[in-house]
Specification:
Layout: H1 5-21, H2 23-33, H3 38-55, H4 61-75, H5 80-95, H6 103-121, H7 131-146, H8 151-168, H9 192-213
Helix pairs in contact: 1-3, 1-4, 1-9, 2-3, 2-9, 3-4, 4-5, 5-6, 6-7, 6-8, 7-8, 7-9, 8-9
Length: about 210
């Protein structure tokens, strides 16, 4: 099963719903080790994504992700805007003008997104950042594709791995970002960026499932 622009738009719309639904949760996570603004920023950013999609409906998955990148970069404050903006832009570039994307395209897009986050944030696995969700997601996606999984199976594997990765940030001591100022006191708290990454990748799965059921 391939994924087209309808999936990409649905993913972004579900992402906006998810960020609104989990706004308070992400604020609370960020209050413990950051600036308390991650939930507010992500909610505001994805509302801007919705507006961008309404103003100029995209014709390809890549165009949809590029529109999201532009909206997030312009509307989201803190570190999240540049990081997620870069992730979506790199993913969009990876997809190019393809109208229908398969499992291999999904893996490439996720890897490009992860590499964009790493390049922008200079973080590595174990630093207690969103990279700790993105990296296992990419690895699981690649394995699912290698095992013959379709695009939905690849997304499912990525989302599940991102969720596990986000949970695994809880005992870590932060080595990057504002949380690193807390030193050992950052342990015991889940990284908000890793959590929002997991939520967004789960939204991608749900969008694909809705498309398959339609």
């Amino acid at each position: 099963m391939g994924l087209g622009v309808d999936w990409a738009v649905k993913w972004l719309k579900l992402s906006a719903e998810t960020m609104a639904d989990h706004r308070t949760e992400l604020i609370e996570l960020d209050r413990a080790i950051g600036d308390s603004d991650h939930g507010e920023n992500m909610d505001r950013g994805f509302q801007a994504v919705l507006q961008k999609l309404d103003e100029s409906p995209p014709e390809t998955p890549g165009a949809a992700l590029k529109a999201a990148a532009m909206a997030l970069m312009s509307k989201v404050g803190g570190a999240a805007g540049p990081l997620y903006g870069t992730a979506y832009l790199r993913a969009a570039t990876s997809l190019g003008d393809a109208a229908d994307i398969d499992a291999g395209n999904v893996v490439s897009a996720l890897a490009a997104a992860r590499d964009g986050v790493v390049a922008r944030g200079k973080a590595e696995p174990g630093d207690k950042t969103m990279v700790d969700a993105w990296t296992p997601a990419v690895e699981a996606a690649q394995k699912a594709a290698d095992d013959g999984g379709d695009a939905l199976a690849v997304l499912e594997a990525a989302a599940a791995a991102a969720e596990s990765g986000a949970e695994a940030t809880e005992p870590l001591v932060a080595r990057k970002g504002r949380a690193s100022y807390l030193g050992d006191r950052s342990a015991g708290h889940r990284d908000p960026g890793a959590q929002s990454t997991a939520l967004l990748l789960r939204a991608a799965v749900n969008a694909a499932k809705e498309g398959a059921a339609a």
